Amino acid sequence: MPRHQTPAQQETVERVMHEFKHGELKTARGTRKVKDRKQAIAIALHEAGSSRNESPAENKRNLRRTKAKERRGETYRDEAEGKKSRKSAARRTTAGRASSSRTHRGERTKAELYAEAKRRDIAGRSKMDKAQLQRALGAH
To answer: What is the pLDDT of residues 30-51, one digit of tens each?
Structure first.
């Protein structure tokens, strides 16, 4: 283990070891639980970006990726505690607000139009703006 870790790295190592202790830590593909303590330490150091076996650039990239995952709430600890990721929760609330405010006016959002175009398999839908999607859906 390295002698000096930043507080962010220490936090990540603690989280990963907590997951291991509670049987929540899984392998990279998420198929099997990690049962070996040394493997858990290797995973913790990898996620914390403080592994001796990787370059400083790779370690930096690993820590950045892990911290983003923690912010989104996509760790195994969050999953075991039944917490949803913030991203999906935010998506649900904003989608609910947007559709409820527009539906009483009879107007569909671009996202709703795009979803309908995708369902109908309309070609070129990804490059269309809202008006073009409305016309394409009206023609089909």
So the answer is: 788 889 999 898 888 888 888 8
